[in-house]
Fold this protein.
Amino acid sequence: MMQLQVLLVAGTHGNEINGIWLFDEWNKSPFLINTHGIKTCQVIGNPEAKKAGKRYIHQDLNRSFQEESFLCLNSSNFEGSRANELVNLYGEVGENPCQIALDFHTTTASMGSCLVVYGRRDADLALASLIQNKLGLPIYLHESDQKQKGFLVECWPCGLVVEIGPIGQGLLNSRIISQTKLILETLMEQINQVKNINLFFPEKLEIHRHVKSIDFPRDEAGNIDGYVHPLRQSKDWQELKKNDELFCKLNGEIIRFEEDEPYVPVFINEAAYVEKNIAMSFTKRELWNLKEKWQQALIDLINHK
Amino acid sequence: MMQLQVLLVAGTHGNEINGIWLFDEWNKSPFLINTHGIKTCQVIGNPEAKKAGKRYIHQDLNRSFQEESFLCLNSSNFEGSRANELVNLYGEVGENPCQIALDFHTTTASMGSCLVVYGRRDADLALASLIQNKLGLPIYLHESDQKQKGFLVECWPCGLVVEIGPIGQGLLNSRIISQTKLILETLMEQINQVKNINLFFPEKLEIHRHVKSIDFPRDEAGNIDGYVHPLRQSKDWQELKKNDELFCKLNGEIIRFEEDEPYVPVFINEAAYVEKNIAMSFTKRELWNLKEKWQQALIDLINHK
């Protein structure tokens, strides 16, 4: 039977460096993180961007895991080639095959620690539920967003993104490193419990389901002419009611939340999303029953059935 | 008699955008900021870098105001040319002459609002003392640093830098904008009082005098192998005692403050200073008597004597 192997990625964005630090620390002190005997591969997602101190060189690596990118291998697109390379090296049928990918990110938004899952894949939801059950982290379900695709973890049978903030780009921070370590250890512990069929899945899972992203207010020339309202700044995960303040405009006008449904905002004022025309995203908070088939999918994957 | 004119600069670093926003707001609503009838010129220091969302294109504009830069005008060095252009446009003997320059910056360090003066120029110290007397802001006296020179304000007869943080690069934040507005208004009010000889200088001035900058710990290959200790993170302006923790190293070692003198750290973990090999700077807190000649220099400058 093939041994389970978990891919750990940090620095998928070259200016999100706290996970890279933790990996370096761990390499120097192998007993730092208890992986419960599960094999891991640690890799820097975008080493070129890390050297340059930037998010990426040519395009966002974490939007490059899609067929179009893999097809332009001979072009000078660094991230397209790197995505292909990572899949060839560590993909399910790669040279050094991994079944689960964990991708460690940071954000300038006040998201605290959270998990991001892409689409509704059974094993992802099961694994996320185990972490939520242990640590109480919110889960952001990213789906139904045609503009944003090609995420790294989607190329593995099971994969989660860990997002931690707020932290400025390019900065190391002891708090962020500790939070990253806690989640990494909890993930390894839970994967180990599934491996040993010594597991307790929660009955329910709280999901923040992506509904849409909204742009900053803009003037006629397309330039941003509003900023996040002081009452909204750093208020990620806090439910919006109709008429709540969203933005202050240059002309003094206040833009308010006009929806009838009580959406929950996330990634408020994430610096890297300005170029994507995203000021924040709206989610719907939902309590889901955990499905038997999700659990089975994770058990089967981890135990190679 | 020539009329007093004050140069206001924002976006000298293209990813420090809160001052630019305030200027835009002010242009739309001319009554937003009371300049007490004093003429001002507002300019974006580095518009190209702002467009690119970066600190600079070729080199730090706020280290480019020196003869070497002015001499390489025909090179492809954008910031060298821009520095020269700003002096030709707004310098003391420029097309649109300004006598005082105020340069608005932000930092990822938890500096709050503060003023930076470069060297010990009489008029700078007098103006800074007036602002400290009104708002209680700390003043960082940058001097004796051969590696760092060519600051914008040094090319004007009187000039201060306003630094506000913490804020991530490239982010707009309502709190930072409000703090910028308060200091700008106070500066204009105080300049107006000097103009009308209706002024009250404080007797003393508290200065944080630059002593030296320290680098991050590095391994033999020159790579950073330590981060700011959790007890030091965000503790700008808080006096260090011997044996206080400074950094955590990759190997678990703690680097401590070894000096006998109680230095005060500033710019702790400023993202843009990593490339300058600066983890933080040490200053000495000193209470100075305000000198008569400083006051006179400011009075003479503002009243064109």
